[in-house]
Amino acid sequence: NKASASFNEAGVSSQISDVPSSGKFSKIKYSWLFFLGSHDSFSYWVDEKSPVGPDQATAIKRLARISLVKKIMKKWSVTQNLTFKEQLEGGIRYFDLRVSSKPGEIGQEIYFIHGLFGIKVWDGLKEINTFLEQHPKEVIFLDFNHFYAMDDSHHFFLINRIQSAFGSKLCSVECVEYVTLEYMWEKKHQVLIFYHSPLYQEYPFLWPGNKMPAPWANTTNVHKLLQFLETTLEERSRYGTFHVSQAILTPRVKTINVNFLYFTFFRNLPMILNWVKAQKPGVMGVNIITSDFVELVDFAATVIALNDLLLEDDESASTS
């Protein structure tokens, strides 16, 4: 669509893909660069015919026996309009992933989930890998941060799927400070997997979840959200990690209706974007910013401009 196309034209992907010739960003730490991410990245499609997911409260599951309730659930479960491929083409490089087994289903198949079940994780991983095959200098973050109805056998199944999908593209756990584009290109790595389960310790390509903190404001008030984002930015330098700033307004149960997420986010876009424009990447700056409906705002061009500030700082330091 037109929104996706215009978003793609300014995408950070095209900017970073040009790095080999200029070497502009290749030596800058990944934790200093500014990346775009999507919240509930997989939620562009959920199945209203599926059971309500185990991520929901018992009261919601009971209400969902009414068909109209599931239709409403579908409206607030969908927080993105673009597929993985479209998000990647638009410059998204961080993906927020929540996964679950389907209770009662035979086997260990794992699905994306946000209230209702989405596509199989395997199908999403294949779609992402196809993009990476076509763009061998692109690097992405996959953050598996919520697991539901999963025992060890489900985790082993999922981890095997991750390994099968990406193989040698997976980056082994390193000190965050070492990760630069140059490092990733030399190793021919393209994927950093963050896995918020103790099982990460058994696999060298699974980064611990505490290396990707993503503090959550949990508010419907945009002023409180921006204050929270400022506060958590001030705290991040002490941890030596990557860092996610969630530019997300969260509905309360009493405020949920079929259009709440879309119109609340859209109405507050100018204030959120102005905050983003005032940020700076680097030691104390924004690293990854996530939002709903990523095609609705010109984050991509803003991010490119902000990353250029790092180059200006380097040039100023060199001159002095």
TrEMBL record:
Gene3D superfamilies, per the entry: Phosphatidylinositol (PI) phosphodiesterase (3.20.20.190)
Biological process, per Gene Ontology: lipid metabolic process
GO MF annotation, one: phosphoric diester hydrolase activity
Domain of life assignment: Eukaryota
InterPro entries: PI-PLC_domain (IPR051057), PLC-like_Pdiesterase_TIM-brl (IPR017946), PLCXD1/2/3 (IPR042158)
PANTHER family hit by this protein: PI-PLC X DOMAIN-CONTAINING PROTEIN 2, PTHR13593
Name of the featured protein: Phosphatidylinositol specific phospholipase C X domain containing 2
Organism: Buteo japonicus
Organism lineage: Eukaryota, Metazoa, Chordata, Craniata, Vertebrata
